[in-house]
Amino acid sequence: MDSQLVFTYGQQGLYLLLMVSAPVLLTVLVVGLLVSIFQAATQINESTLSFVPKIIAAVAVLTIAGPWMLNTLVEYLQRMLLAIPTVVG
Known about the structure:
The protein has about 90 residues and is mainly α.
């Protein structure tokens, strides 16, 4: 097995990880920022107030982007499983 091939597969895996997780992470980040601004403006220091909107936003994004995320991960897994014979022998 060539070391360049290992690095290529690793790079593809990391890129896929970033691409699939980005919608949820960015949404939760934006919602958290908006809730923090709201808490600072109203001086409400309730710790549970930040969790509920983040969870709702994450579930909404997973509902909308979930099929795309799952399809992307399945395609990557299929490519990796089909590449096993070429890598091994």
